[in-house]
């Protein structure tokens, strides 16, 4: 995934889209946008930074997981098998991006009455185990059978990317040099969060055009 | 100046609380106590072993109370190839089996084997904490010798306190000196650990550690004075009790501090700030460091 920080306006539409799609409990956001103010008047900057699971190439959460509940798919998406996870939270403390969440009981956004999305998406297996962003892998998985391309065709693209009003979020195959994200990265100056920790994050942030 | 909305700065993790700390405290002091068994004399070995196993068991119970799906706990054995939590869990039954052999007086060979397993157990715990790569105060490699030396110091201290407080047998003359040596080693490793963390952990984590180190130094000094006085003064049995308990308290409080109070996460950092309109990307920001 690629976030073009020049374009992000901090509208949190991706946050809301993720929330609606995955019906995460109150206080749990698999996708959110950080809001950073820096500098001294008159040289002040405001930066919006979308964050989620980085689907690392070398995920720290995977090696520590004592149950093998955390696994990495062939396409690089890191998933959790909720049937196996014991909720020990070792992955949560191993993740340098704070993107693992555990809720002990079902919580609803608006009192006792569940919303339609909460009811439709509720999965009792997700209680008391580790949860996180899946890169909407259920949508991505339809790509092969439908002959579509994730990141290009909205039907097989993560909800947050589809919802982005500023065109800041992009999704694609970084191993394919012709993919949309590879093209973007080739022509831009970018970084990855906490690169010094050698986790090989799958989330890139663009800050300017390559000179 | 930097301000933020949405938690950019490091914050204290809440996934591992006092129950996780309880595992490191019980497991560490229990393992340390089992390490002291070969030095404690034959008469005391069974009861010290029982106490050590009880502490380790209490630590494991704490973890069991913390996990979200306790009835699936046996799944913990599924990743021995890379998870130190699995390795710790694999060692536990061996430790209890060997401990049972010592309690039933199977011989000194089992005491030595038990000490070896206890050392391996506490090493697993230390590596497990180091595996928490999202927490800068945990992931530093120096945390491993710190936890191991802490376990030895508190285990020997507890063993000495128990021997001195009860009439289980003669207190071996070497035990107070071994405890004092372990305390000194732990103090030195703590200084090295804290020095190595400078600039590599969030300021709030360092502040929590520094706040505790004052208490740690007082407890360690009190323990050293009591141990040395108790070892050299005739009738200084109660000094050895206080010295041993102070060593135990210092180790346990340190682990609580590291696991709970200094457990600030990485937060977020931007090496570069993006272009907005004309101009170039600006130098980045790393709030809370």
Query: Number of DSSP strands of chain A?
Result: 10
In the residues of chain B, how many domains can be counted? 1
List low-confidence stretches of chain A.
Answer: none
Largest sheet of chain B: 2 strands, antiparallel
Mean pLDDT of chain A: 95
Low-confidence stretches of chain B: none
Reported by name, the CATH topology of chain A is: Alpha-Beta Plaits
Question: Architecture of chain A in CATH?
Answer: 2-Layer Sandwich
Task: Return the CATH class of chain A.
Answer: Alpha Beta
Short summary:
The complex is a heterodimer of chains A (211) and B (289). Chain A has 8 helices and 10 strands.
Short key terms for the protein model shown above:
heterodimer, A: 211 residues, alpha+beta, Alpha-Beta Plaits, four-stranded mixed sheet, two-stranded antiparallel sheet, 8 helices, 22% helix, globular, B: 289 residues, mainly alpha, Formate dehydrogenase/DMSO reductase fold, two-stranded antiparallel ribbon, 9 helices, 67% helix
Account of the 3D structure:
The complex is a heterodimer of chains A (211) and B (289). Chain A has 211 residues and is of the alpha+beta class. Chain A has helices at residues 13-22, 60-64, 90-94, 116-121, 137-140, 143-146, 159-163, 180-186; strands spanning 2-4, 32-40, 43-51, 70-72, 78-80, 101-102, 130-131, 169-170, 188-191, 204-209. Chain A starts with a strand and ends with a strand. With 289 residues, chain B is mostly helical. Chain B has helices spanning 18-40, 45-66, 84-103, 108-130, 136-139, 143-165, 174-197, 203-232, 237-261; strands at residues 2-5, 270-273, 282-285. A two-stranded antiparallel sheet of chain B has the order 2-3. In chain B, a hairpin with an 8-residue loop joins strand 2 (270-273) and strand 3. Chains A and B meet through strand 2, strand 3, helix 2, helix 3 and strand 10 of A and strand 1, helix 3 and strand 2 of B.
């Amino acid at each position: 995934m690629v976030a073009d920080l020049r374009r992000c306006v901090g509208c949190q539409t991706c946050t809301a889209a993720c929330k609606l799609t995955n019906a995460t409990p109150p206080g749990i956001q698999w996708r959110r946008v950080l809001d950073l103010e820096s500098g001294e008047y008159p040289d002040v900057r405001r930066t919006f930074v979308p964050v989620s699971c980085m689907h690392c190439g070398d995920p720290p959460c995977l090696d520590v997981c004592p149950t093998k509940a955390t696994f990495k798919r062939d396409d690089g998406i890191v998933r959790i098998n909720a049937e196996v996870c014991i909720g020990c939270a070792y992955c949560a403390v191993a993740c340098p991006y704070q993107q693992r969440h555990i809720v002990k009981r079902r919580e609803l956004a608006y009192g006792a009455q569940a919303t339609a999305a909460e009811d439709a998406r509720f999965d009792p297996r997700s209680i008391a185990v580790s949860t996180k962003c899946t890169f909407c892998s259920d949508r991505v998985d339809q790509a092969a059978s439908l002959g579509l391309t994730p990141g290009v065709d909205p039907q097989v693209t993560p909800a947050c990317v589809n919802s982005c009003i500023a065109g800041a979020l992009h999704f694609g195959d970084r191993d394919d040099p012709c993919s949309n994200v590879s093209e973007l990265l080739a022509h831009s100056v970018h970084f990855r969060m906490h690169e010094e920790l050698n986790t090989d994050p799958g989330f890139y942030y663009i800050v300017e055009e390559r000179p | 100046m930097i301000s933020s909305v949405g938690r950019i700065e490091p914050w204290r993790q809440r996934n591992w609380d006092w129950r996780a700390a309880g595992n490191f405290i019980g497991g560490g002091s229990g393992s340390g106590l089992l390490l002291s068994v070969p030095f404690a004399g034959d008469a005391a070995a069974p009861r010290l072993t029982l106490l050590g196993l009880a502490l380790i068991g209490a630590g494991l119970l704490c973890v069991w109370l913390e996990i979200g799906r306790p009835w699936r706990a046996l799944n913990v054995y599924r990743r021995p190839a890379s998870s130190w939590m699995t390795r710790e869990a694999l060692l536990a039954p061996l430790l209890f089996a060997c401990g049972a052999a010592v309690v039933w007086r199977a011989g000194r060979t089992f005491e030595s084997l038990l000490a070896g397993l206890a050392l391996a157990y506490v090493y697993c715990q230390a590596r497990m904490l180091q595996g928490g790569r999202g927490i800068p105060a945990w992931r530093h490699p120096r945390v491993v010798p710190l936890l191991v030396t802490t376990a030895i110091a508190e285990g020997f201290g507890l063993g000495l306190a128990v021997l001195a407080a009860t009439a289980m047998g003669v207190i071996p003359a070497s035990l107070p000196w071994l405890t004092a040596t372990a305390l000194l080693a732990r103090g030195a490793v703590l200084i090295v650990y804290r020095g190595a963390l400078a600039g590599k952990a969030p300021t709030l984590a360092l502040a929590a550690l520094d706040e505790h180190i004052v208490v740690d130094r007082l407890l360690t000094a009190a323990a050293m004075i009591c141990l040395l006085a108790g070892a050299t003064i005739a009738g200084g049995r109660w000094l050895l009790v206080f010295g041993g308990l102070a060593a135990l308290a210092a180790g346990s409080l340190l682990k609580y501090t590291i696991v709970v109070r200094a457990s600030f996460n990485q937060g977020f950092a931007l090496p570069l700030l993006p272009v907005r309109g004309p101009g170039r990307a600006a130098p980045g920001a790393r709030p809370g460091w």
